[in-house]
Design a protein that fits this description.
This protein is of the alpha+beta class and 816 residues long. The chain has 31 helices and 19 strands. It has a five-stranded mixed β-barrel. A five-stranded antiparallel sheet has the order 11-10-9-17-18. A five-stranded mixed sheet has the order 12-13-14-15-16. β10 and β11 form a beta hairpin. The longest helix has 26 residues. The N terminus is likely disordered.
Amino acid sequence: MGLERFWQERDGKNTRRQGETPPAAGVWPNDEAEAFDALNDGEGDDRPWRFWGRGLRLMRRPLGPAPVAGDLVAWLAVFLWAGAALWFIAPVRPGLLLSGPVAGLFLLLGIWQAARTGQRGLLLLAAACVGFALVSWRVLQAHVRLLPAHVGWVTLTGQVERTWHAGPGRVRMILRVKDLPEVRRRFVPQRVRITLLIPKKRSGKNTRAQGHERLPLPGDVVRLRARLKRLPQPVEPEGFDPARAPFFAGIGAVGFAHARGLFLIEDGCKDCGLALLGARYLERWRRAIAGRLRAVMRDDNAAALAAALIIGERGRLAQAHLEALRAAGLAHILAISGLHLALVAGAVFQALRFLLAAIPGLAIRYPIRKWAALAALLTAAAYLLLSGNSVATQRAFIMLAVMTLALMLDRPALSMRNLGLAALLILILHPEKAVTAGFQMSFFAVAGLIAVYEAVRHVRLSRMVLRAEADESRTLWQRWLRGLLLGFLAFALTTLVAALMTALPSAWHFNRLSHWGLFGNVLALPVVSLVVMPAGVLALVLMPLHLDAPVWQVMEAGLKAVFTISGWIAHWPDPWLEVPQMRLWAAALIAAGLLWLCLRRDGWRLVGLGAVVAGVLAPAAVRPDVLVDAQGKVVAVRNAAGQLLATPGRAGRFALSIWLRRDGDPATPKEARKRKGWRCAPSGACRTALIRSGQTGERGRTIVFLPAVMERRLESNALKQAIAQACADAAIVIAAFPLREGCKEVRVRIDRFVLWRQGAQALWLDEAGRIVRHLSVSDKRGTLPWGRAPLPRKAVRADVPADASASRERRMITDP
């Protein structure tokens, strides 16, 4: 039906508003939403969709221009994030009984001030207090019972809640503990995370992956022998705390087990809730998709990358390909986030909108754009569940849902207000995510893109008329070429802005930036966006019809192209820029400057650029001169050149690699161990100078390391003699075993008992070799709930023999 006929029908019903004139004949609206708005504005219209013009009219009213100081919702999200992050770095953390009322009081005062005077300073301060109180509430809500000791091998019975592939030959499971007789009842955690070691058979293809398919599903009850430990500890006092995420996930202990000792007790998800039953069917679907990928795709690495993109299984990819993707700046495609959801939802939205627009009756009478948006949102929700429902994917889905709702209400989908709403929702649900790299990188990138494209939009709109006149004189292929060039430039601009905005979280959390990430993303992401993800969505649709094999092969070709690009860029010189650890105030200054640049809309936004420059030019953090890992396996001392000298051996490789990265040192652990400085005696004791210009052996200026091998090699008397000889001229003694009565005259004595109680150690020295600061993990953690002091193993274990009977059990993984 033409638009002219539509106006004639409305004239007959007398529903046109006073002073409203129909458009000229043959004139079609620029968007189907305009015609739909015209259909739904009538007061006497009794169509079933009339609520769009009535119930949502207030919500769809134009908001007007944004204030020059920035959108209030976006600023509230920024201060809520700052308050939540402050909880983790504050030396004193008031409980919810104090922080909650204070936050409520400030919130009431802020609302009163904003209503009376229009000022919003108190309201923003209240948002920060609310963020602080939300983390306190989240800690109380978690209520995790932590295992306070390494209890060794125990027999564990639990119900499977989740399984995922963690790497070659490794599968992780989260178990809800049902029976743990070898641990005293008051110390039994509610949930544990177990890493299963799957044996590799000598024959067959992908035997480890096939073994994963035979693992129990969510809801099954299993029994296994596992070696349980406390939550993992930081490798240095001021480093990343790996126990924080498991704590908020409700996990109280970690451990590992051999898959050959895994037995099934109950099959069929008995006494399962709705959530666990849904997780069981989703896991079956995910495993079926993974098996289909391996069956259709010839390249195992392409199948592994496809599994990462479709179902979120990132542990199947070979280490060489993973490092190549990281060097090319493409590692972000492995984590299902906003990019993947946008590609999936965008493909469904455009395809469905194109199909509906081909039917003139639907295009004129109905809001097909909103229908397509709703279908895209439902598809994204299904993709969220299929990909494992991780927190990062939940964060991206909330952002997409807010933007889709804005589109359905005729609001701008990408705006600072929508971004602020998404951030507020995520921080209210998961305030602990404020200090995670994924949250910060996602929102910084989207904020930068929105700010840049809002600025570019004005220039683009001002030149639209001139561009239209110039296009009339161009041929068709010139228009196509110009469109491709503009698309490429827009894609390059998007990649550049995202790289610049995520540089701060990358430098703070990972201490490295990719030199060639811009080129890798510009070359590879078009393949992912135009070939890989659309083919994956289409293959999933065709999979029930058994017509998916050719489409999976198209996806495989695109993934091979991605591998080719990443491998080529990874061989370019100096793929990484190592960044030394930043000072906290410098990182905060850069973050504040970036957010000020994005949110302000007047000339004062350039103040943010000055803050960013000041933060970038700030000196790096003062790194420790002596570092000791939590097990006493490796010790590193700084030399005159500012480099770390590591003790000989192979133990402690992971901790040493983290120390080098936080130093901004590109050396590998093997290279750091080859640096000259440590001198080792035949007994095993090693020593080096404490001062950067001193000589090894000068009394009071020497550090001595006593490895665990000494306790195993030497007899009691010989060990005491070696310890006394090593401690005679030492200022610091570090031992991987208990010293007991030895080395009492040494000023700083760190033995196995000290490391067990306090964790990893860091010491700062002056130019004379004197200790000016000594910090341990326990000192840094303070009163954090996941940093409680350990207990002896005897106080935690119960004197109950392990039940080795397995008459009613069924083995899940057969012996090779």
